[in-house]
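Morning run. Coffee first, then this:
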Amino acid sequence: MLEVNEAMHEQAQETRGGLAISVIIPARNEAHNLSRCLVALHNFGEVCVIDSQSTDETVEIARAHGAKVIQFHYTGGWPKKRQWAMDTLPLKFDWILLLDADEIVTSQLAAEMKTAIEDGTCNGYYADLQMVFLGRTLRHCDASFSKMVLFRRGAGRYECRLKNQDASMADMEVHDHMLVRGKTAHLCNPIIHCNVESLARYIEKHNAYSNWESRVLAGDTVSGELSPKLFGSQAQRRRWLKKTFFRMPGSPIALFIYRFLFRLGFLDGIPGLIYCCFQAIQMFHTKAKIFELHQTQSVPKEKRMIA
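And here it is:
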């Protein structure tokens, strides 16, 4: 099902910097974003682009910037792209940075990461994402969140919330969280997340995400996932709020009102309006797909949600 490109160690690479971190970047048709992402990684010792048979210039751009390109062939199930890369690739370094092609590591963040891994007191580090949507930094809309991005190899793994997956649900982890053993901390500098420059691509990706999320919220999950808790971590709290909110009739409209009015999304101009609308629309798509699942398969009544 999955193959490591046999030429991985034979690809010509530019001389990379001395920061002892292996970067993993999942990609598929990311030519528009990838160059900007890779330019900021010139000081990192190893960069691996995990490609899914891109039909644009993704592979050529990655190699031109000295990154290794490994092809990932997904036919369903688990693991998905990032976890597969961590399990399979002979990475050079003891620290792993997970980055998306539309994300940028600033020089300040890179310097902070260098200090963090030299300190060695933690096994993992969270970073905030600074959202840039349609060319504008979103400072409202409840658009900011943090995620685990940097951790010791072997100390972290993705939770598997849904084993029975297919290619319609994206070939990389959607909202599965990275779980790290041991002490963790939070980096001060954010990752720049250029969330969308092509609305058509944004809609395509989020359609796959809603396929996955509808299955999870319909109750088709596996044990061992990060449990929803109102007073838990940020990830647990957001998961509890989402599950609770999804049960409410009219929740997509309520989500738009919350983001656009109560979280001051209107101050982010037209991009803020579009972002808040798309978030509400994605929730509506997910709820509609949950209803479709209820119509086509047996789901225990206690797990059903109001569509």
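The two ends are 36 Å apart (CA to CA). Good start to the day.
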